[in-house]
Design a protein that fits this description.
By secondary structure, this protein is α/β, with parallel strands linked by helices. The chain has one domain (about 10-170, about 220-245, about 250-260): Rossmann fold (3-Layer(aba) Sandwich). The chain has nine helices and nine strands. The protein has a seven-stranded mixed β-sheet with strand order 5-4-3-6-7-9-8, sandwiched between helices. The protein has a two-stranded antiparallel ribbon with strand order 1-2. Helix 2 (about 30-40) runs parallel beside helix 3 and helix 5 runs parallel beside helix 9 (about 220-230). The termini are far apart.
Length: about 260
Amino acid sequence: MQDTGIDPVAHNRAAWDTYVRKGNEWTRPVSSEVVERARAGDWSVVLIGHEPVDRSWLPADLTGKDVLCLASGGGQQGPVLAAAGARVTVFDNSPGQLRQDRTVAERDGLDLRTVLGDMSDLGAFGDAEFDVVFHPVSNLFVPDVAPVWRECFRVLRPGGTLLAGFLNPDVYLFDHDALDERGELNVVHTLPYSDVARYSAEERAAKFGADAALEYSHTLTGQIGGQLAAGFVLTGFTEARHQSDASAAYLSHYFATRAVKAKRG
């Protein structure tokens, strides 16, 4: 059933622009009140689910730190980190998502830049340009995660930190309709899963909607092993459940890692 010639970058760019127009949860910018609290030192950002990231995973003082919010548009994490003192670049595949970040920056006087592009290709940036890469759950929208990890390693400075969230691949085992409509955990898919490989364009439109983004599961070898292969040293791991999902009683839906690019010498 695999479509030939499909461009996941172009497809998902259009899909996320549509999500912005429809007000998807992850496209709604933070308020001015949240920004003001962040300026005063009272802030948090989300990497997986709805749980704030452990502040110890980030530098104790973000002032002057160069932070890349990777595939992290929507006016949420980027503006908060900028208000906390970081020099923030938001890189995202969706012009609509980046517009949300610029809206907050202009509204609240934040120093924040936005760059359009595919998370697998960070050619817009030089080597060792950032102190932190903040990468919330988003690599389910690319077919191959290995280039993402290699690029993260390249653009980080020695001693820099990658914070990454990603889906537990097991969530893709279940039939989407049975889970959402009846709360039934029917195992129907093999892993790794791909919308493109599993369904035709017509079937995807009927099952998920004509405007839905393409999704791809990735093995833990690809997610965690891929970071190690890129050169990172893992220093933190956590997980979270999606409490509104019927499978929450059985598994965690999200994983997060903290990884460091070792200093030379």
